[in-house]
Each structure stands twice: as structure tokens, then as C-alpha cells.
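The records we work with from here on pair a chain with its fold. Taken together, the C-alpha cells spell out the fold as the letters spell out the chain. The record below shows the convention in full.
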Amino acid sequence: MLLLGVVVTLQGVLASVIYSLIGLAVFVAGFYVIRLILPYDVHKEIEVDQNTSLGIVIGSFILGLSIIIAAAISG
């Protein structure tokens, strides 16, 4: 099937969905590991105590983990 000048196959779509689900699972597992490693409640520190520096650290962790997962999936 040709869609916007790109050949789309069922096998390619299925592979993309599987890789996306695996990537999301790894991302969620990594986030829970970082929450377990930190000695305080991340939710309380960011939302209740307005800890901006922790928000930046968690955001950086999320971006870094996402880049690693995307690189691993794309080969």
C-alpha cells in the first residue's frame, strides 16, 4: 500500500507497534527504578514542595532515557 509516497506494509506497522510497546515498557521500568533509588518522594518534592531542581533532574533523566531507547530501537 502506498501512503504519502511511502510503502506501508502490515509487517512494518506491526513491527513499529511492537517496538513502541517495548520502548514504553523499558521507559516506565526505568522511571520506577529512579523513583526507588531516590531517598525521597518525587511526587511530593516536585508538586508540593515546588522543588525546581528535582524537576530539571527528572526531566533530564526522561530525555536521556528516551534518546537511549530510540537509538536502541532504530539500530
Summary: DSSP finds three helices and two strands in the chain.
